[in-house]
Amino acid sequence: MDSNYTAGSKSSYIELEHYNNGTEIELPKSNGICKEIFEENGFGDLDDVPLIPGDAELISNREAGSDIPGAVFNLATSIIGAGIMALPATMKVLGLVFGFFSILVMGILSEISIELLVRFSVISKSTSYGELVESAFGLPVRILSEICIIINNAGVLIVYLIIIGDVMSGSPEHIGVFHQLFGHGVWDFRKLVILIILILFLAPLCALEKIDSLSLTSAASVALAIVFVVVSCAIATVKVMEGKIAKPRMGPDFGSKAAIMDLLVVIPIMTNAYVCHFNVHPIYTELKGRSPQKMDCVGRITTALCVLVYFSTAVSGFLLFGDDTESDVLINFDRDLGIRFSSVLNYIVRIGYVLHLVLVFPVIHFSLRQTASSLLFKEPLPQGRTKTLALTAVLLGVIYLGSTMIPNIWVAFKFTGATTGLSLGFIFPCCVALRLDKRGENLTRGERVLSWVMLSWAVVVGIVGVVGNICSFRSNSS
């Protein structure tokens, strides 16, 4: 493929030099793009500037990589994970009407923040979430953002293992799949089951070095999530038609102190369900013929898909189990559903979603490993197969230990949702956009106002969520 670019070596990166009619045009040597130089030489449109500089072959061969469906699958897989299992419990707190409104608004706001990330990553030529933050605020804030990614992603992966353990081996209140199928045995030891699944199934997928290698597994994981949604909606529909479901609550419950405490923390949990921003950069990098407009299309399709899946899951789960809905709705499917083929449907729902989590796990782990490598070794990705495997093993070990110490997914989501989830999904993207748009050249007036509104809302919700978590913890302790 012919190109007007030539590569000149630099100590830490490959600089691209553009020649226009034989005249060299100077490109910036820092982390930002000198927009005036581009406009002066007839290159005012920044949409075609690659997000990831670096490899000359990668830039000259931009048609390689995943297409829009593959990118949608990877981004949707980053979103539709364990959060979907907590949504029926949030619907129990919020009620059907306000719950649906929250799911829709959170999805739209999250998609807007993704568009801000892509736009300003192109403008600043940032290669990762942390580098984008550094281009706006410097190294200390970048380190803070990377710590947030590590805590958030590690927390999400710990939740995945908790769900897998609860479903397959059971919990004190619920019977596991293995026990129902085979009776008592070694599979009743939850920690052992999680360890075996981690070693045999999760570790090989996590050892892959490119996120594009996970496109097929991501597609399969989305399909399994849709199977779960279809089956649960079908069960709820049958029970509604048979008159076996009580009228659901439409709004929040203010009748008790515990209900009010749940209201204080449920919105951060809802926002955490859409956090995928840490994977935007690697997905954009491997998007075939990438441009901000194309990535915006990926984000909008993904958001529409996730809103549909989330609402269907939240409503069907709440209708089926009402006030008995658990923080992880999957463990509710260990009982007789009161319809034909109940046991078969229960197995399909639980085993299918465990497989979904197994396929989602490496996608979230990829950005966790990438961020840890950047923070520890100053490398966007671990350089060398040995270092990759070693870092993967250490991270998986820490995640496994965390899954044995945290009691349930509600505890994990309450903490990450009010802190790292809001920070990664809304606070950092809005702050970066407002900081890099000093002269109002890249944001319209309406976008600036919206960014300020989103930032203020996220800060308030985060503070309220943290206060609610502290009050809830004290109440439980007493």
What keywords describe this structure?
Amino acid/polyamine transporter I; disordered N terminus; 478 residues; 5 strands; single chain; 4% strand
Describe it:
The chain is mainly α and 478 residues long. Helices cover 68% and strands 4% of the residues. It contains 17 helices and 5 strands. It has helices at residues 35-40, 56-60, 68-79, 83-94, 96-124, 129-137, 139-169, 177-182, 190-206, 215-241, 257-272, 280-285, 292-321, 342-377, 385-405, 409-436, 445-477, and strands at residues 5-9, 14-20, 23-25, 170-171, 174-175. Strands 1-2-3 form a 3-stranded antiparallel β-sheet, with no helix packed on it. The protein has a two-stranded antiparallel ribbon with strand order 4-5. Helix 7 packs antiparallel against helix 16 (409-436) and helix 10 runs parallel beside helix 13 (292-321). The termini are far apart. The model is unreliable at 1-62 (pLDDT under 50).
